[in-house]
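Extended Data, panel c. Modelled sequence:
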Amino acid sequence: MRTLACLVVALAAVSVAATGISFQGNSALATRALPPGAESNAHRSDGANDVGVNYVSLNWPSAANISDTNGRYMWVVAQIENFSDETEMVKVGMTIAEGVPTGCERGITLVMPGQTSMLIYAGESKTMVWRVRYECHSPAVMSVVRQTVTVGITHCDPATSEPGPVTEPTPGGVCRVNDQPVGSEGDVSNNAVTVSRSVLIK
């Protein structure tokens, strides 16, 4: 928990004003600029149902040693934000595109805030943290494994919620509940951020 606390504090100081990927020490950071009409830490003035992902940071483990039962951990930290002028229900999801080699296991745990569906107040941002554990045993062999992480957010409304029909994009997954009878999100271009890097197995 001490490591997690230090990680969150360090990432809180990262500027998210620029778009792109930068590498800082043993981490890869992907940021996305705020959508048109929005400013940092401020909601949109047009009242649109607009939510988004501000950044995703990957803090990578040292090499995953074969037959080491302690495993190695990667931390995925993302900031989501509600750019609208009203409270929104959202669903947030994290996926890793690639698998792991035969003999390796990967476990994903959401550390905070503890659930993937939540209400976000107007202009509010939240930090999401996932822990990804790698453990490898024979027949795994020395290799370099690319891991591509995507964090997405879905604005929960009838068009993105079960029982459906679900007719709009759901970058953070399909919602099970929503907070409004109408009002789909018009622009989902800032609803997902992807960043990747390699994990060494030896």
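The beta strands are 20-24, 27-31, 51-59, 72-82, 88-96, 104-112, 117-120, 125-136, 143-155, 192-201. This feature is highlighted in the accompanying rendering.
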